[in-house]
Structures are given as structure tokens and as C-alpha cells.
Amino acid sequence: MSPRSASVNEELRRRSRERLLQSAVELVAEHGYDATTLGAIADRAGSARGLVSYYFPGKRQLVQSAVHRLMHRTLEEALEREPRTEDGRERLARAIDAILGLAVDRPVLMRQHMAGILQAEGFVQCPEQQRLSYLLRDTVARRGSADVDADYPMLRALLMGAVYAALVPGAPMPVPVLRAELFERYGLDWDMGMPPGADAPGGSCGADVSRFFATDRPE
Predict the structure, then answer these.
(1) pTM for the complete prediction?
(2) Does the structure show a pLDDT above 80 at 171?
(3) Cβ contacts of residue 23 below 8 Å, gap of 6+?
(4) How far apart are CA 18 and CA 20, in angstroms?
(5) How many helices (H) and strands (E) are present in the chain, helices listed first?
(6) Closest Cα to residue 188, out of 102, 98, 95, 105?
């Protein structure tokens, strides 16, 4: 049997990494962060346990990368859904609604994500985080920002603050109130994006996250 080509090996590594990311999201959502072990993630992904450390230094890095993947694919889906638009204000509204929607639909994951970011190590610099950053920066630019380097961090901070406020145990703020504040700040009309109560295109996101971790598509 001839050895596999470099491209085939790279594809196998990509698929293995994606399965680990998907398994991490599923298990943390089902059992919480503390009860989810690297061994359990590897088992669900069908990977050797030692392979996890090949891709990720530890559980926090793996889970943060997995949530960043969920975030950037959710955002990408919202920005590109039909009817497609190049209108910068509409795209910003969609971005805000996509991130706030994750706080509603994935509270366990997003709460853990915020807790992980607040640790001393902060953001995990990974391809998923970089893609999320690119999409948000592009959204700011398309809205007509004259200083993307200043306006992007502000948008990121406001979105993080809104997610945190929506998930504070015992004293959460209603997402429609948070949305109204963000929309007013950016001069967006309430009926832009996906207003609270509107049906999501294609139906509810449900518990299935597999479409965000498809192993048959390139990064």
C-alpha cells in the first residue's frame, strides 16, 4: 500500500480536529464544563485520547476554540442568509442578533465562554477566533466606519457586555432590552436583522450543531 499524500493527511487532520470541536460543544452543552473531560470529548469524536493534546494545549483552549467556531459559523450564516444584502446597517443588525441569539439558545456554552475569557490567559488565538474577528471587522467596515481599528473593538466589547448581561445568574437582563440599546447606539431600525419573536430562517437552530462543524468543507 502506497503512503498517503500530504494533502490526504492534511484533510484527515482537519476532519479529526473538527470532530473534536463539535464533540466539545455538544458535551459542554449537555453536561457543563466541569463534568466534561478531554477523554469524553475524544471518545465522542472517535479519536485517540492522546490526539487531543496534539491540537489543543488543554480543555479550556479546546472549548474556547469550539465556541468560537460555533460563533463564527452562526454569524456567517446570519450575514449570508437570503435575501443576501450588502447593506452595512442590515448586516450589523444581523450580527448583533446572531450573537445575542447564542446567549438565548446556548446559555451554558456562552456562560462558560465568558468565564474562560475572563481568566488571565484571555482569548485563545486560534483560527476560529481569527475568523470571528474578521467577520465582525468586515461588518464594521461595511457599515461605513472611518476607523475600523477603533470601532471593531468597541463593537466586540459591547457584544460581550450584552451577552454577559443576558447570562448573569439571578439577574439577567432581557435580550430585547439589550438589543434595543445596541440598535439605538448604531442607529438601526427595530425591524432590521431578526427581531425578537421572528421565526429564524430555516426554523429553530435546535440542539443540532453539526452543520457548523461539517467535515466535508474546507476552512
Answers:
(1) 0.87
(2) yes
(3) 41, 42, 44, 45
(4) 5
(5) 9, 0
(6) 95
pLDDT tens for each residue of 97-119: 999 999 999 999 999 888 888 87
Please, which residues have CB within 8 angstroms of residue 29's CB and are 6 or more apart in sequence? 106, 108, 109, 207
What does the alpha-carbon distance between residue 121 and residue 115 come to, in Å, rounded to a whole number? Answer: 11
Q: Is the peptide bond before 172 cis (omega within 30 degrees of 0)?
A: no
Main-chain dihedrals φ then ψ at residue 164, nearest 5 degrees: -60, -45
**Who's near 213: CB < 8 A, 6+ residues apart?**
18, 19, 21, 22, 25, 69, 73
Listing DSSP states for 25-87 in one string gives HHHHHHH-TTT--HHHHHHHHT--HHHHHHH-SSHHHHHHHHHHHHHHHHHHHHHHPSSP---
Please name which of 96, 114, 76 lies closest in space to residue 179, comparing C-alpha atoms. 96
Q: What is the pLDDT of residue 219?
A: 40
Residue 20 burial (10 A CB sphere; 0-12, 13-18, 19+): buried
User: What phi and psi, each to the nearest 5 degrees, are found at residue 26?
Assistant: -65, -45
Give the other-Cβ count within 10 Å of 107's Cβ: 15
Residue whose C-alpha cell is 439577567: 172
What are the grid coordinates assigned to 121, written together? 490567559
Single-letter residue type at 164? Y
Question: In angstroms, what CA-CA distances link 97 with 20, 43, 94, 131?
Answer: 27, 34, 5, 18
Alpha carbon 216 to chain centroid, angstroms: 19
In the chain, the percentage of residues whose pLDDT exceeds 90 is: 67
pLDDT in tens, 29-65: 999 999 999 999 999 999 888 888 889 989 999 999 9
